[in-house]
Each structure stands twice: as C-alpha cells, then as structure tokens.
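Bug report (template v2)

What were you trying to do?
Predict the complex of my protein with BV8.

What happened?
Run completed; filing so the output is reviewed.

Input:
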Amino acid sequence: MRAERILILTGAGISAESGVPTFRGPDGLWEGHRVEDVATPEAFARDPVLVQRFYDARRAHLGKVAPNPAHMALGRLDAAWPGDLLIVTQNVDDLHERGGARRLLHMHGELKSAWCTRCDRRHPWGGTLSDQPPCPGCGHRGALRPDIVWFGEMPYGMHHIYNALDRCDLFVAIGTSGHVYPAAGFVAEARAAGARCIEINLDPSMVSDQFHESRLGRAGDLVPKLVEELLQGC
Ligand code: BV8
C-alpha cells in the first residue's frame, strides 16, 4: 500500500484488549453512571468529588494495564515511517506513549495531566485529585481538575488536526464508534481531501459507510497487519 502522509484516529477500541473499558460496550458504565453524565463541566460543578473519583479510579487503573500489539505496531510505524504521520487519539490513557508513539496528539486530554483552574498551568499527574492537593504552580488547594476535554468543551489541537486532515493521503480510524464529534467527522474531511480512508473496528461504526475500506476484527490482530503492509510499501 502506497502512502506519504498518514493520519490515524484512535478510540477506546484500541485500548479494549489492554483491559481499558470502552464507553459504549457492555462495560461502558462507571458505578452505574453513563460517561456522558459524568464527563461534563456541569457534572463537575454539581458533584466535583464524584467526578474526581471517576478520574482518580481510571488514572489508578493505568498502572494495571499495558500496551497491546496494536499500540506496539503504531509505535513501530512511528519509528520507521519516513513521511508525515500524526496519531490523533480520543483516548485519555497513556498506552500509545508506552507503545512507542511519539507523533501523537491527545484531542480529549490525558488522565496523567492535571489542570489548575486558578493559574491555568498543567502538570503531569499520577496521583489523586479528589483529596484536593495543592497546585504545584500556584499552591492553591481545590483548583486542580482533570486535564480532560468534557462534553461541551473544545477538543485540543483542532487547528493542527484539520491541517493534517487536509494534507493526508491515508486516513485510518481504529476502534472508534463514530458517536462523538468532531472526531466522527474527520473521515469526511479526509475523504474530501482525497485521502484513502480505512476503518479498523470490531463492529461497523456510525460512519462506516464513509470509508473506502472497512476491516472488521480486533485491533490487536488487524493493526500489526496494516503496519506491515505500510512498511513493506515504503
Ligand atoms: C465539542 C474524554 C464543540 C472524557 C470524551 C449532536 C451532533 C453532533 C455533536 C454533538 C451533538 N450533541 C452534542 C454534540 C457535541 C458532543 C458530542 O459529539 N456528543 C455525542 C455524544 C453526540 N461533542 C463534544 O461535546 C465535543 N466538543 O463538540 O465542542 C464546541 C464548539 C464550540 C465551543 C465549544 C465546544 C467534546 C467531546 C469529547 C468528550 N470527551 N472523552 C473521558 O474519557 O472521560 S469522549 C469519549 O467518548 C472518548 O474520548 C471518545 O472520544 C468518545 C467516543 O468513544 P470511542 O472512542 O468511539 O469509544 P466507544 O466506546 O464509543 O467505541 C469503541 C469502538 O471500538 C466500538 O465501535 C467497538 O466496536 C470498537 N472496539 C471494541 N473493542 C475493539 C474494538 N475495535 C477494535 N478492536 C477491539 N478489540
């Protein structure tokens, strides 16, 4: 397969085989709450401890999971690919980094980052926030929130992402259901720019019909195969 400039979009499905629950699968609830009900500024204003505990639990869970063959394959692609490559992930886990990805953008933020709502600084964070630790920057307690893009908030890096979408000649979506915008609209952008669009997913997504090719199956099986095809062609 020939390509020069690749944009890869990943979602919760790429981390599923590592044991990180997806959002809309049978494991998609947390203590009976739908993510959409917890991952919002309104929920945080209404019940900050509940929301902080939700993210504290997921941040702690990162220590119990490891990258799977799909993450490792993208790490190999990143190390070897001579052309443009951008991996845009909707995921807030650190499995892409641990799998070797470098040209990576977390459009929905990261569990391992805390954002101070007083001084606006962001800090690497591995611990808890529900106990209201002081901000390492301004020292204020109770001002740190998860550095996560909630529903109704603007995703990170949109300018960079749309530039890459307009330039790419291969767009690959991996493990995302196509429910959440603006990410679900990226395939339309890439297609309009003339890119070949491939979807790798366990089941058809909400936007499968917009892809030139749909490869149904587990990311851990199909992503290494795609990466080998790409590296053979370069
Ligand atoms: C915004 C961080 C604009 C939180 C997340 C109506 C129409 C269009 C848009 C909207 C609308 N109503 C509201 C909106 C906007 C809203 C939205 O899209 N809502 C949806 C629910 C309709 N979007 C937003 O609010 C976004 N912001 O639009 O801002 C704006 C404009 C001006 C000013 C201000 C703002 C922000 C959205 C970001 C929300 N944050 N994550 C957290 O993680 O706690 S979203 C969250 O769900 C994830 O990050 C992910 O992005 C998203 C979708 O999940 P997926 O990754 O797709 O996972 P899912 O479980 O759904 O699917 C997994 C897939 O994997 C499945 O298909 C499954 O088959 C597959 N799979 C499973 N196992 C495997 C597998 N595939 C391969 N191998 C396997 N082993």
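What did the reviewer find?
The pocket of BV8 is lined by residues 11-13, 16-17, 22-25, 35-36, 39, 90, 92, 108, 148-155, 175-177, 179-183, 201-203, 205, 218-219 (CB under 6 Å). The radius of gyration is 18 Å.
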